[in-house]
Amino acid sequence: MKKLLLLIVLLINxxxxxxxxxxxxxxxxxxxxAQRAALQKEKTSKDSIAKHANANYDYLKSLxxxxxxxxxxxxxxxxxxxxxxxxxxxxxxxxxDISLYIVRFVPEEMTTEQYDALDNETKDKFLTVRFSYWNxxxxxxxxxxxxxxxxxxxxxxxxxxxxxxxKTYCKYDADLVKTQENSTNTFADIPENLHYLFRKDRDIWxxxxx
Length: 210
What we know:
single chain, alpha+beta, 7-stranded antiparallel beta sheet, elongated
């Protein structure tokens, strides 16, 4: 009987010891997992800061979904406000056949009559902001119209008009001369749904939101 009791006590001690060892091992694993998670979080944070440090991510993402034409016009006017030579709003035009909203600016001193007298090729050289639009949530089968939603699709003009836009929104450290020497400049972050091309197209420069 005494031997049996001693055996039971021994087994209990072994079980307690095994349980304690398991707890120690599990605690060590959890601690290492927590350390790895903290290091990964720190790395992700640093990567995020570095990635966002050279472009206005939040603003660029907001340009992919604009609620009204008034907001679109305000965005176009903000772009016009970046110009070193003052410009004025000439007109905004809605082209429903191709789902496009266009805003054009001309030099501040230019009259509408002077503009109208120009040929189309010359007119295209003035600062122009284009927005595409669609009906968000539309379902024709269910006769749901959806909500008209805008997206910045393109800004065009002379190089000196376009460079401030590129530098302000896409690449803070862009160099005036080096950027012009590249026929195509790219800013892309596919996971963030951002992809901009800044390139020369004949006699004008175009910033495209792909």
